[in-house]
């Protein structure tokens, strides 16, 4: 996203926080999270910025990179490569963390994409919008979101990879929200 959209996002979240006060309950946290996700998705769906992922060659670099370490460093559940962003549902394996995986994927793909389209400079945002899937219901919401994300785009402007959705993960409790199981 271009800096103006990032700034718009930050201002809107700050405004929401001032209007709603401190986050004191699980419901407060969930409401803020829903607001942030909806806002971010609205901004992404505007297809702001350069939209280099609309280019087939660029999408192919990302697709091949994602599959290169599937079943070695992570297990891919689903993804969609949109013109200006990627939604990726993966399960890290062994010692691999999301941070290490994202750094590796972003670094490699940025280098290869910049080379392929004669571009220079940063391609990906420094931060990733990563989330832990905590239960089966959340898993299927994410799977459904990924599947529906390109619904307003022409075929060929995105790449969609869906498995049959297999939530064979162990839910991780969120102690900050008072979950103990």
Describe the structure.
- This protein has 181 residues and is mainly alpha-helical.
- It is 46% helix and 10% strand.
- It is built from five helices and three strands, in the order H-H-H-E-E-H-H-E.
- The protein has a three-stranded antiparallel beta sheet with strand order 2-1-3, with helices on both faces.
- A hairpin with a 4-residue loop joins strand 1 and strand 2 (86-92).
- Helix 1 packs antiparallel against helix 2 (26-45) and helix 3 packs antiparallel against helix 4 (98-116).
- The longest helix is centred in the N-terminal third of the chain and has 20 residues, at 26-45.
- The radius of gyration is 17 Å and the shape is globular.
- The model is unreliable at 170-181 (pLDDT under 50).
Features:
disordered C terminus, globular, mainly alpha, about 45% helix, 3-stranded antiparallel beta sheet, about 180 residues
Q: Secondary-structure blueprint of this entry?
A:
Blueprint: H1 3-20, H2 26-45, H3 56-68, E1 74-81, E2 86-92, H4 98-116, H5 136-148, E3 159-162
Mean pLDDT: 85
Approximate helicity band: 40-55%
Q: Structural class, please?
A: mainly alpha
Order of helices and strands: HHHEEHHE
Strand content: 5-15%
| Major sheet size, sense and barrel closure | 3 strands, antiparallel
* Poorly predicted spans: 170-181
Report the total helices. 5
Strand order within the widest sheet?
A: 2-1-3
Q: Total strand count, please?
A: 3
Distance between the termini: 37 Å
General form:
globular
Radius of gyration, whole Å? 17 Å
């Amino acid at each position: 996203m271009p800096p103006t959209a990032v700034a718009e996002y930050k201002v809107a979240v700050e405004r929401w926080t001032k209007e709603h006060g401190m986050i004191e309950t699980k419901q407060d946290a969930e409401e803020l999270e829903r607001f942030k996700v909806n806002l971010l998705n609205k901004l992404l769906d505007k297809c702001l910025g350069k939209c280099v992922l609309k280019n087939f060659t660029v999408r192919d670099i990302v697709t091949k990179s994602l599959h290169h370490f599937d079943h070695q460093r992570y297990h891919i559940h689903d993804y969609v490569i949109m013109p200006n962003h990627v939604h990726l549902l993966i399960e890290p394996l062994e010692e691999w963390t999301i941070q290490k995986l994202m750094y590796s994927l972003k670094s490699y793909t940025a280098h290869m994409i910049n080379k392929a389209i004669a571009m220079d400079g940063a391609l990906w945002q420094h931060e990733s919008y990563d989330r832990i899937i905590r239960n089966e219901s959340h898993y299927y919401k994410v799977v459904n979101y990924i599947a529906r994300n390109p619904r307003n785009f022409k075929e060929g402007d995105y790449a969609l990879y869906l498995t049959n959705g297999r939530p064979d993960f162990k839910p991780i409790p969120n102690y900050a929200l008072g979950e103990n199981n």
